[in-house]
From TrEMBL:
InterPro entries in the cross-refs: DPH1/DPH2, DPH1/DPH2_1, DPH1/DPH2_2, DPH1/DPH2_3, DPH1/DPH2_euk_archaea
Stated family: Belongs to the DPH1/DPH2 family.
EC top class, as a word: transferase
Function description: Catalyzes the first step of diphthamide biosynthesis, i.e. the transfer of the 3-amino-3-carboxypropyl group from S-adenosyl-L-methionine (SAM) to the C2 position of the imidazole ring of the target histidine residue in translation elongation factor 2 (EF-2).
Keyword Iron attributed: yes
Record protein name field: 2-(3-amino-3-carboxypropyl)histidine synthase
GO biological process, one term: protein histidyl modification to diphthamide
Catalytic activity: L-histidyl-[translation elongation factor 2] + S-adenosyl-L-methionine = 2-[(3S)-amino-3-carboxypropyl]-L-histidyl-[translation elongation factor 2] + S-methyl-5'-thioadenosine + H(+)
Highest taxon of the lineage: Archaea
PANTHER family in the record: 2-(3-AMINO-3-CARBOXYPROPYL)HISTIDINE SYNTHASE SUBUNIT 1, DIPHTHAMIDE BIOSYNTHESIS PROTEIN
Pfam families linked to this entry: Diphthamide_syn
C-alpha cells in the first residue's frame, strides 16, 4: 500500500531484538491508523524470520496503555511487538513487549527547526520544553542542535492523559499531527500556576497552531456536561483493561459516590463506545457516566444524551469545586 511507504517499521531494530532468541510465536499489534500496513509488515517479517509464527491483534490499540496481553497469552506468544507507541508510564505488561515507534518519513525537519528557533526568539523564552509522538521523536533529536536562540529540553513522548510537567519551562512545544495532544496539554495547563505558554506544531503542514480558540470551545462544552451531571443520582463508572484499568481511581470514585449517597455501577470494557452505551441502554439507566479508562472517550461522546465525564470532571462535580478545570484525573 502506497501510504505505508511513508513509515519506517524499523525492521533492523526487530532483527536485533529477535536475533539469537528462541522465539517461535509473536503477536503483532498496530494502532488503528497503521492497520492498512499490516499485510506489508507481515510479508516482510515472514521473509526475514521464516521460522517464527506471526499472529495479528485487531483489538483496540489506541495507545501503549492497551498492550494486548490477553490475546498473547491465549495463543502462547512469547513476545508482543507493539507498533506506533513507546511504553506507557506506570504500566508493565506481564509478557515481553518490543515497542516500535514507527518513524514517519519525509518530514521536513529543517522547517521544524526554523519554527522552533522562531519560537525561541519570542520574548521571555530561554527554556523550551518539548514533547512529541513516537513517530517524530527521532527526528526531533536531530533537529534541536540547530536551534540557537534558546535551550530545548526534550521531555520525551507525549500521551493524551499524561501531561508534560511544565516545571522550569518558559514555554511548551507539542509536535504532533492532529489536535488531541495539543488540546489535552492545554487543558492540563489550565489548573497550573504559573502557566507557561504553549505552542503546537503540526509536522505534516509545518505550521504553528494556536490551541486557545479550540480549548475555549471545548471548555464551554465540558462545563455544560458537568452542569448536566450536577444532580445525577445514578452513575456509571467505566473502567478498562491493562494500562487503562485504574483500580485506585475507581476506588476513590466509589468512595465519593457512596459518601454522597449516590447509586453506581461499574462496567469493565476493552472498547467503550456508542454501541455499548446502546446495548446497556445507558441513556435511560444512568444519569451520568464517568470514564476512567481514557479521557479521550469522554470528549468523543460529547453529544451523547447523558453527560459522559472524564475523571477530573467527575471529581469537580462530586466535590462541587469548579475553581479550576481539572484534567485528566
Ligand atoms: S490518552 Fe487514552 S489512548 Fe492515549 S495513552 Fe492515555 S489512556 Fe491511552
Amino acid at each position: 500500500m502506497d501510504f505505508c511507504k511513508y513509515y519506517d517499521f524499523e525492521y533492523e531494530e526487530i532483527h536485533r531484538y529477535l536475533a539469537n532468541k528462541n522465539i517461535g510465536r509473536v503477536l503483532l499489534q498496530f494502532p488503528e491508523g497503521l492497520q492498512p500496513c499490516i499485510d506489508n509488515v507481515v510479508d516482510e517479517l515472514k521473509r526475514r524470520f521464516p521460522d517464527i509464527e506471526f499472529y495479528i491483534s485487531t483489538n483496540p490499540s489506541y495507545g501503549s496503555c492497551l498492550v494486548d496481553e490477553y490475546s498473547a497469552r491465549e495463543i502462547g506468544a512469547q513476545l508482543i511487538i507493539h507498533f506506533g507507541h513507546y511504553e506507557y508510564p506506570g504500566y508493565r505488561p506481564s509478557i515481553d513487549v518490543l515497542y516500535i515507534g514507527v518513524k514517519r518519513l519525509n518530514i521536513d525537519i529543517q522547517t521544524i527547526g526554523r519554527i522552533l528557533d522562531d519560537i525561541c526568539g519570542e520574548k521571555n523564552i530561554s527554556k523550551l520544553c518539548l514533547a512529541t509522538t513516537a513517530q517524530h521523536i527521532k527526528d526531533i533529536y536531530m533537529v534541536i542542535d540547530r536551534v540557537e536562540r534558546c535551550k530545548i529540553f526534550i521531555k520525551g513522548t507525549i500521551y493524551g492523559c499524561i501531561p508534560l510537567n511544565p516545571d522550569n519551562c518558559d514555554a511548551i512545544v507539542i509536535i504532533s499531527g492532529g489536535k488531541f495532544h495539543c488540546i489535552s496539554q492545554s487543558l492540563a495547563l489550565l489548573s497550573m500556576n504559573p502557566k507557561p505558554r504553549i505552542f503546537c506544531i503540526d509536522p505534516y503542514i509545518q505550521s504553528v497552531i494556536d490551541p486557545e480558540p479550540e480549548v475555549e470551545k471545548i471548555l464551554r462544552t465540558r462545563m455544560w456536561k458537568m452542569f448536566q451531571a450536577s444532580n445525577a443520582k445514578k452513575w456509571l463508572i467505566v473502567t478498562g483493561f491493562y494500562g487503562q484499568y485504574r483500580e485506585n481511581i475507581v476506588k476513590k470514585l466509589v468512595e465519593k459516590l457512596k459518601s454522597l449517597g449516590k447509586e453506581y455501577r461499574v462496567v469493565k470494557s476493552l472498547r467503550f463506545d456508542r454501541e455499548i452505551l446502546a446495548n446497556i441502554d445507558a441513556e435511560h439507566n444512568y444519569d451520568a457516566i464517568v470514564v476512567t479508562s481514557c479521557p479521550y472517550i469522554a470528549f468523543d461522546l460529547k453529544d451523547y444524551g447523558k453527560p459522559v465525564l472524564t475523571v477530573g470532571e467527575a471529581f469537580m462535580v462530586l466535590e462541587n469545586n469548579f475553581s479550576s478545570y481539572r484534567y485528566p484525573w
